Amino acid sequence: MRLVLLGPPGAGKGTQAGVLKEKLGIPHISTGDMLREAVKEKTEAGLTVKSYMDKGDLVPDELVTRIVAERVVKNDAKNGFLLDGFPRNTKQGRELEDKMRSLGIGLDAVLYFNTKEETVIERLTGRRVCTVCGMIFHIKNMPPKVEGICDACDGKLIQREDDKIETIKNRIRIYTEKTEPLLAFYKEKGLLKEVSGDLDVDSLFKELMDLFKRERLIQQG
Length: 221
Ligand code: AP5
Description:
Blueprint: E1 2-6, H1 13-24, E2 28-30, H2 31-41, H3 44-55, H4 61-72, E3 81-84, H5 90-103, E4 109-114, H6 117-126, E5 127-130, E6 136-138, E7 157-158, H7 165-179, H8 181-188, E8 192-196, H9 201-214
Parallel strand pairs: 1-3, 1-4, 2-3, 4-8
Antiparallel strand pairs: 5-6, 5-7
Helix pairs in contact: 2-3, 4-5, 6-7
This protein binds BIS(adenosine)-5'-pentaphosphate.
């Protein structure tokens, strides 16, 4: 199954992708994670994108499109993938379409996590991520067993640089301006499937599973 996860920052795309990848047996391809990894490793791409990401601006299209094009052809993505954070504007949407056409494949669905702004702000200001394995927590909704420490690997939990309130507001503005037009882009293609991002983690996962069954993307039962 080839899916795109679309929605505002903090809608819970990464959290659901973490569960879905196990359930569906396909990789979670997050451009945000790949770019943060490049920043951490101080690669050439990492040095270029850091200032954009810290401000909550989109990084240049060419760079992120190249990263995705190289990633979707890897062996583990042969039977499908969960694309999270890409495309981010209609130019990227068209480039993804071209790349997939050249590979003779297509998207099965675009999952739109429709989420209220107040939910987004509450989630992002409380988010903590593991510096070692990347696992996502929330100080109230999904607290770690021991404060500041990852349940999975004992790594240190930190607040993302772009999860400060002023940067969050810029990310929401950019989402509305640049990414929301993709809703019409994919609706026209009959690929857009909406779920409520305001639901708690388990209810949202159930809604996604029901959707997959309804759309016959997975077997009933
Ligand atoms: P990226 O990492 O993609 O950030 P984002 O889209 O803003 O998404 P987030 O990771 O913030 O949110 P999420 O929806 O995954 O929420 P999560 O599950 O973590 O991008 C970062 C930056 O990289 C961009 O600003 C840009 O600079 C650059 N970039 C990336 N892709 C790019 C592209 N294609 N083009 C150009 N630039 C690009 O959940 C959030 C919190 O809520 C967590 O604390 C979680 O525990 C909690 N939570 C999650 N679900 C629930 C729930 N259902 N109920 C209660 N709490 C929940």
